[in-house]
Amino acid sequence: MIGKLNHVAIVVPDLAAGSAIYRDTLGAKVSEPVAMPEHGVTTVFVELPNTKIELLHPMGEDSPIAKFLRRNPDGGMHHICYEVTDIIAARDLLVAAGARVLGDAEPKIGAHNKPVLFLHPKDFCGTLIELEEA
């Protein structure tokens, strides 16, 4: 069902500093920041030969990742995103197998302008999973 790894998301307390680490220290290609107010985050994508790293920073205290950053002030890994060919079919198979989809279980448009869903970390070895329709 799942396809390739699309990205690993890391919450950072300082987006400019996080970007600089990947760009200047590790030599990666780093995108410009993109504000996503509908998701309450600003994102930066680090391009790697085989996948991407998504740096996330909260847009205010109401951001869904603000609580994560309060618990982890240095930041840390937030989720892993896998591609699926049909997000509705994937959702239905996962729900039938007992997995929990977060929110209202309806896909939202994600950072790549594609439908995404998030799966409960307790159902996946303690890891928040994002599915993105490829």
* Record field, number of beta strands: 9
SSE string = EHEEEEHEHEEE
Measured by DSSP, the beta-strand proportion falls in 35-45%
Molecular shape: globular
As for the CATH topology, it is 2,3-Dihydroxybiphenyl 1,2-Dioxygenase, domain 1
Largest sheet: 9 strands, mixed
Which CATH class is shown? Alpha Beta
Q: Distance between the terminal alpha carbons, to the nearest Å?
A: 12 Å
pLDDT averaged residue by residue: 96
The CATH superfamily name is 2,3-Dihydroxybiphenyl 1,2-Dioxygenase, domain 1
Point out poorly predicted stretches: none
Class from helix and strand fractions: alpha+beta
Number of helices: 3
| Quaternary | single chain
Description:
It contains three helices and nine strands. It is of the alpha+beta class and 134 residues long. It has one domain (5-133): 2,3-Dihydroxybiphenyl 1,2-Dioxygenase, domain 1 (Roll). Strands 1, 2, 3, 4, 5, 6, 7, 8 and 9 form a nine-stranded mixed β-sheet that branches. The longest helix is centred in the N-terminal third of the chain and has 11 residues, at 15-25. The chain is globular, with a radius of gyration of 15 Å. It starts with a strand and ends with a strand. The mean pLDDT is 96.
SSE arrangement:
Layout: E1 5-11, H1 15-25, E2 29-30, E3 34-36, E4 41-47, E5 52-58, H2 66-71, E6 76-84, H3 87-96, E7 108-109, E8 115-119, E9 129-133
